[in-house]
Each structure stands twice: as C-alpha cells, then as structure tokens.
Design a protein that fits this description.
The complex is a heterodimer of chains A (about 100) and B (about 140). With about 100 residues, chain A is of the alpha/beta class. Helix content of chain A is about 35%, strand content about 30%. A 5-stranded mixed β-sheet of chain A has the order 1-2-3-4-5. Chain B is of the alpha+beta class and about 140 residues long. The radius of gyration of chain B is 15 Å and the shape is globular. The two termini of chain B are about 20 Å apart. The chains are: A alpha/beta (about 100), B alpha+beta (about 140).
C-alpha cells in the first residue's frame, strides 16, 4: 500500500511502500507540484530505485524554475539508499535524528 | 521456501507478503528485511522490464540459516545479463547531469554481501545473500 497527499501545511505526505507498482500513482501526484515543497517521509517504510526515479524526475523539473524538494523524516534504511545514490547532494534531506 | 510469481509489477505485493511471512517466522530484523526486499524488487522488476513478451513465471527461493538470508531468482528463456559486472555509475554528478534510471544494479551491488550469477541453456539464476546483523543474535 502507498499513499501520497498534501498535508495541512502544504507539505507532501507519503506513507507505505513506494515500489515499482506504485510509481505511476506517485509520479501522477508529483507532476501536479509546481513549487518548492517539503516531502514528509514519516510514514514511508520503503522505497525502491523506481521511487528514486520519481523523486529525481520531479527535482529536475522543479530545478528549472529554481525550486526543489526538501525531504524530511527519512528513516535509516531509506537514508542509506539515498547515500548510495548520491541523493544527499542533490536533495535537502533531514533524518529524525537531525 | 519457494514460489513462482507472474511476470508483472503487480506481483510485488504478493512477493513482499510471501517473504514477510517467512521473515516473521524466523524473526529476521528490519535492518535485513529492507535490503533483501530492495534487491529482490530490483532483480524481479529487471526480469519483468527486459523480457516483456516472456510468458514464464519467475521462481523465487528464500532460505535462512543462523547467519544469513539467501535469495535466488530464476528466470527462463531469457538472454544473458550478468548483474555481477561492475557498472560505471557516477553518483556524484550534479542534478542537471543526472539521468533518471540506471542506478538499480549499482544499488544491488552496494546492498548485498554476496552476489552470484549463473546462466545456462537460456536460464538465468541470480543468488544473493545478506548477513544477519546483531539484532538477530
């Protein structure tokens, strides 16, 4: 199961498991984002490389307008994937530990 | 424990449920479950993506002993694609030079402890293992 929606403060809230079968849903949502946003991964348990592709595609599109995504509450496992992918250098990322 | 899965991204949910049941029965720690699921998905979706016309199901075998989880995926009537070959992936490129995709095999190689590829008679067999951490001791 994977859910994505706007939170009360305009942040993007993700929950569940973002695997290859859920990427179309995630990409359709992200394609509606037109300005800088915070993405809250508090409830996101898992992401695959297909999910990384959704984030990267969105970040590249937003960068053309000078905006970008900030990803917060990234769990340790997902943070490891970000690190191996070099995403820590192209996204602003916050873990629960800071 | 083994099971065959239909060649579709929609099989992922069943694959995760299948392995979660197994992990629960063996009390496998989350620190091991995540990379095992990640690598399993990467290998399975590659098999789906690069052999779309193939009608064979994909065999998944998961094994556990006191020190590691071992997973084997077997695919039938496919071309050779050796996932153990090192890819030249530059993860330090700036955003504007990044391309979407192409990280999968690099991440597989980063996340496993062992990775083997066997190819014979158009049958592809990939085995990887992940050591159990201290949480499982």
């Amino acid at each position: 199961m994977f859910d994505i929606e706007f939170g009360n403060n305009g942040e993007i809230v993700c929950a569940g498991r973002l695997d290859a079968a859920q990427c179309e849903k995630a990409q359709s949502f992200m394609d509606t984002v037109a300005e800088a946003r915070t993405v809250d991964f508090q409830g996101l348990e898992y992401i695959s490389s297909a999910g990384l592709g959704v984030l990267l595609k969105t970040q590249k599109r937003l960068a053309d307008t000078g905006a970008g995504l900030k990803i917060i509450n990234v769990n340790k496992h997902i943070h490891d994937v970000f690190r191996y992918s070099g995403f820590h250098a192209i996204f602003e990322i916050e873990t629960p530990e800071g | 424990m083994h099971k065959k899965f239909a060649r579709s991204y929609n099989s992922l949910e069943d694959i995760f449920k299948f392995t979660e049941l197994f992990f629960d029965s063996e009390n496998v720690a989350a620190s091991v479950r995540f990379p095992v699921h990640f690598v399993m998905e990467e290998l399975f979706t590659n098999m789906v993506k690069y052999n779309p016309g193939n009608t064979h199901d994909i065999l998944l075998d998961v094994d556990f002993n006191e020190s590691r989880v071992t997973v084997t995926l077997t695919d039938y009537d496919v071309d050779e694609f050796d996932v153990t070959v090192q890819r030249n992936v530059n993860t330090e490129l700036p955003l504007e030079e990044r391309k979407v995709g192409g990280l999968g095999v690099h991440l597989i190689q980063k996340m496993v402890d062992t990775l083997q590829y066997r190819y014979k008679d158009r049958q592809s067999e990939i085995t990887f293992s992940k050591e159990l951490g201290l949480e499982n001791v």
